[in-house]
Amino acid sequence: MPARQTTVEGPAGTLEAWEWPGAEPPALLLHGIGNYGRVWDFVAAAIGGRLRLVAPDARGHGESVTPETGYAPEDFVADAIAVLDATGLTRPVVVGHSMGGAHALVLAATHPDRVGALALVDAGPEIGREGGDRARRLSFGRPDRFDDDAAALTYLRETSPGYSDAVYANRMEHVFRRESDGALVWRSGTDALLQILSGPARSTDAWRALETLPMPVLVVRGTRSPTLSRATYQRMLETIPHVTGLELDAGHNVQLDRPAELADAIVALAIRGSSRP
Questions:
Q1: Is 110 exposed, middle or buried (0-12, 13-18, 19+ CB in 10 A)?
Q2: CATH code at position 253
Q3: Which candidate, 233, 235, 266, places its Cα nearest to that of 92?
Q4: Dihedral sign, CA of 191, 145, 17, 246?
Q5: Residue numbers of the domain that contains 254
Q6: Please, are residues 168 and 4 in contact by the beta-carbon 8 Å criterion?
Q7: Phi then psi for 21, rounded to 5 degrees?
Q8: Domain contains 175
Q9: Beta bridge partners of 220
Q10: Angle at CA 251, nearest 5°, toward 15 and 146?
């Protein structure tokens, strides 16, 4: 089922979003740092029309606007609200991976009437040191450009090994922009990534926010991920009022490692959220 691209006017400029038709209730899918909306392609294929899906490219990523400033969580939440309004999503299950999970949590805590259910995918109030170091290394240690497709693909395979050929093809198509001379450059701006990663830590506020969530919540952890530790995951399950936990044999990018299992969990959560008063 192919994705349809749609343009949304956000607070800082145009946002590109990707829609897959399907049944109600809907889902809003928020990607992690350095990624893009179409990173959810494999989950969308596994959902197979059971839910209507919308996955925006976050500001500073993909084909969306890259403003000079404005990369606090509240800025991304304002963008998410604009996407909800423009696409007519009513109380969707909001699924956030990594950075997208942090933004999904703020959205759910500050606009609980707009969110039917919440899924935090390898995302939590505290990030493991190894996971944070890897994010910074991939964001700031990367080459600015690649002379040809072979060089770019080699880099992706060396820095993020173990994925299927289909995943690398997806990343080649959506993570790079082709220049007039044929070279490939990153769609995600380095300055934007720097502002995101250098933002203030908000772990205390995030833990408090988790305590107040009125909607059903799913916390997903990749057991091979360095980002969400088992201790943090366990504390989240003890903190969130209406919570279900799911651990999968996956790295940080659960949506790429275990799309079918994640898809089934999202559908089940959406059904729970749709019955919420």
A1: middle
A2: 3.40.50.1820
A3: 266
A4: negative
A5: 4-133+190-274
A6: no
A7: -65, 155
A8: no
A9: 121, 246
A10: 55
Sign of the CA dihedral 30, 35, 38, 39? Answer: negative
Residue 162 lies in a domain: no
Label residue 201 by pLDDT band (50, 70, 90): low
User: DSSP string covering 190-218, please?
Assistant: HHHHHHHHTSPP-HHHHHHHHHH--S-EE
Our count of domains for the chain comes to 1
Give the separation between CA 243 and CA 77, rounded to whole angstroms: 22
Tell me the whole-structure pTM to 2 decimals.
Answer: 0.95
Which 3-state string (H, E, C) describes 136-196?
HHHHHCCCCEECCHHHHHHHHHHHCCCCCHHHHHHHHHHCEEECCCCCEEECCCHHHHHHH
Of 120, 119, 110, 113, nearest in space to 277 by CA: 113
CA distance linking residue 217 with residue 105, whole number of Å: 10
Q: Which amino acid does the sequence have at 202? A: R
214: pLDDT strictly greater than 90: yes
Residue 203 located in a structural domain: yes
Q: Are 90 and 111 in contact (CB under 8 A)?
A: no
Q: Two tokens at 142?
A: 């990367």
Which residue type, as a one-letter code, is found at position 13? G
Q: What whole-number distance in Å separates Cα of residue 234 and Cα of residue 9?
A: 39
Question: How far is the first Cα of the chain from the last one, in angstroms, to the nearest whole number?
Answer: 32
Mean pLDDT of 128-142: 75
Residue 173, domain member (yes or no): no
Q: What is the mean pLDDT of residues 235-254?
A: 98
Residue carrying the six token digits 């596994």: 46
